[in-house]
Amino acid sequence: MTIEPFAPVHLLAVLPEILLVVLAGVLITADLALPAARKRELGLYAAVGFGLVLGVTLLVTLPTVSGGLIFGGMLRHDLIAFAFRVLFLFAGVVTALIAVDSPTIGKEGEFFLVLTAAVLGMNLMAAAADLIMLYVAIEMTSIGLYALAGFLRENDKSAESGLKYFLFGAFTSSLMLYGFSLLYGFTGQTNLYNLAAALTGLPLEASLLALLLVLVGFGFKVSMVPFHFWAPDVYEGAPTPVTAFLSVASKAAGFAVLIRFLLAAFPGIESIWTTLIAVIAALTMTIGNVIALTQKNIKRLLAYSSIAQAGYMLMGLAALSANGVSAILYYLGMYTLTNLVAFGVIVLVGRVTGSDEIADYAGLSRRSPGLALALLVAFLSLGGIPPLAGFFGKFYLFTSVMQSGLVWLAIVGLVNAIISLYYYLIVLKVVYLGTPKDEAAVYPVPRPYQLALWACALGVIFVGAVIGPWVNIAAAAAGGLF
Amino acid sequence: MIPLSWYLALSAALFSVGVYGVLARKNAVAILMSVELMLNAVNINLVAFWHYLTPTAVSGMAFALIVFAVAAAEAAVGLALIISIYRRRQTVVAEDVNLMKF
Question: Are A135 and B62 within 8 A, CB to CB?
């Protein structure tokens, strides 16, 4: 693939990133300028800012399907990067909205600043086409997320989750970086799209060693087995809006690089890595779902559920087809909407009851029918019940896997989907049939939350009901990689 | 001239010491130091490859410089997190930091 010489029009391709830097500047200035009584508006500024960047992205930066390497090959301006960008920015809007009235982080300018930096890093991760750029983007995201997870210094669990996230993350990213340095050494190239040609002449072991090292780093980001140990602890301890962001945006960013990297750099050992990914996918979803069965804390439950969801999505990669990748994209889209609804409810309930134990959700439907309904939509979608988006997401993934001849994997996936229904329904049973501990508890839902929850919950239903356009977009984006 | 393989052997040895350190040490600061060792091993790799294989292209050199910068940022955030744990618990031993378990 040839690298396009610099043209001013390329600046348009990174306009969202430039605007995010501006937004970061605005937020830090506003944090200094606003009097303490008006600090609440910081989160609204952040949400509106992300929304504006999202609008600009949709209007201005739509690339041609083929995509081109720009900025000396550092970025690839293609449709899949565009799709992921939209996803990250949307997750940014919702995260900012559900953090607005938080008593702990709602008034902290640094929180929204670091959130902006993390979204910026993710945008670059999705577009990076060069080892150097990829490393910088991954670290930009990760370092910001370590700080966000440990943001509540006065809270033991948050501090612990930040430290654990950091230690796991630093270790795995160093292993990944060693893989990058070997790839550079073996080929003399740093551009992803030149690696494949240079690797073909080398012994198999060289590619394999680099592949395994690189998979450690990416596996950590998408929380695939055996690099999933951090997820439950970090999800439980981090401030809930951060958990929401981690579980959707960080995982999506991991998939963005995983898909691009494996397809671009290792076509020579396709048969090996697809088998490896297929086995890992089966393990990831089984382990995630089985351990989720025993959880008492809803954030931990969703952590294991998100590990299992990563397993489903890995199946699409193992299918090694445009259909498989397009199924991953659709699934990520619906998973983002769904998980944000679930975490939005958890934030609000946690604020009233002061706990994330599933037992404390007893009788939520009687105290707050709206929140209970939102949770119902989210969990049924995660479990894959029609007509919600989760059903078609799973259906599309399983079909793509069957088409590629991996029938055993589709069966494992199906069995897992059934196991997962059990623990999702248990939570819903507690919510709808349990007796509330506090008959008089009131669950206030401030405006920003109403907006975020309505947008995401309607999105879950709409994306599941009107499938055509989303599948077309996902298929076009996936087509650019093959 | 010293052959490339010597540098690579040094780097691999340093990297292995780092990996061992991360897995075996219990003190969070020691783990952070071991991670830094791994990153230094990567840098030796990058600079050696650059010097022997592609001395005319700057990519290897630039990569090593960027790894420095990122490693510094990572250490800063890491130490901050370790300090915040220390203030709460008066310990930096990773094993003792275990409020959350399966």
Answer: no
